[in-house]
Design goal:
InterPro entries: Tad_N. The chain is α+β, with helices and mostly antiparallel strands. Helices cover about 35% and strands about 25% of the residues. It is built from 3 helices and 7 strands; from the N terminus they run ααββββββαβ. The protein has a 4-stranded antiparallel β-sheet with strand order 1-2-3-7, covered by helices on one side. Strands 4-5-6 form a 3-stranded antiparallel β-sheet, with no helix packed on it. A hairpin with a 4-residue loop joins β1 and β2. α1 runs antiparallel to α2. It is rod-shaped.
């Protein structure tokens, strides 16, 4: 008389176990999905930070080459036009160090690819690929205990503002001097203001300027 009850108890136990397994599998799936989403988000954050940092360094490199390659005055009355930023480019790999640094600051991510390229005469872009890999306090990578890694890509650009005009001024060239003693180049753009760089002698590499004063002639942003 008690056998049917035992069969019912067994069927109920099997159903409970099956339900528990389903709940467990769903929970594990949600956990894996959440970890993957979190890793992708961290990787993208690292890529964005690395690309923007690289673009910032590219901007300063661009400014340096622009101002240090200005042709000196040809005569005491040469107060004419000077070169704008489109006459020069940033150094190759100018932002690689900054990209590596900022990627590492975001969950120990690493830069797996760095590509710097012009996009016309007034725009330079950099694309950075990163791999997110968070490390715990003991120094063991999370990926060894199941946390997934993730890759991401970001591109940033440095764009020179439109309407930048530069000209020479304050040319000091005494009558008996065989060459210029000192001179300046002043640059301006609509809605931005002006900035001045000074030179000693005919060597443009002697440029003396405030990099941040000239940085206002450029815009930096992430692009698709």
């Amino acid at each position: 008389m008690r056998s049917p009850l035992k069969r019912d108890d067994g069927q109920m136990s099997l159903a409970v176990v099956s339900l528990a397994l389903v709940v467990l599998m769903v929970g594990v799936g949600l956990m894996i999905f959440g970890q993957a989403s979190d890793s992708r988000g961290k990787a993208q954050k690292a890529a964005d930070a690395a690309a923007l940092a690289a673009a910032t360094e590219m901007r300063y490199s661009w400014i340096g080459w622009w101002l240090r390659t200005q042709p000196p005055p040809k005569s005491p009355v040469d107060w004419g036009p000077a070169r704008g930023p489109s006459s020069s480019t940033p150094s190759m790999n100018a932002g690689r160090g900054a990209a590596n640094e900022y990627a590492a600051q975001n969950d120990n991510s690493s830069v797996t690819s760095y590509r710097q390229f012009p996009s016309g005469t007034s725009v330079h872009r950099v694309t950075v690929d990163t791999l997110a890999e968070k490390t715990d306090v003991s120094g063991t990578a999370d990926r060894l205990v199941g946390t997934p890694q993730a890759e991401a890509t970001a591109t940033a650009e440095v764009r020179a503002k439109a309407g930048i005009i530069c000209r020479k001024q304050n040319v000091i060239w005494p009558p008996k001097s065989p060459t210029v003693i000192s001179w300046e180049v002043i640059c301006s753009a609509p809605g931005v203001g002006s900035a001045t760089v000074g030179y000693i002698g005919p060597v443009p590499m002697s440029a003396s300027y405030d990099p941040d004063d000239f940085a206002k002639f450029f815009d930096i942003r992430l692009v698709d």
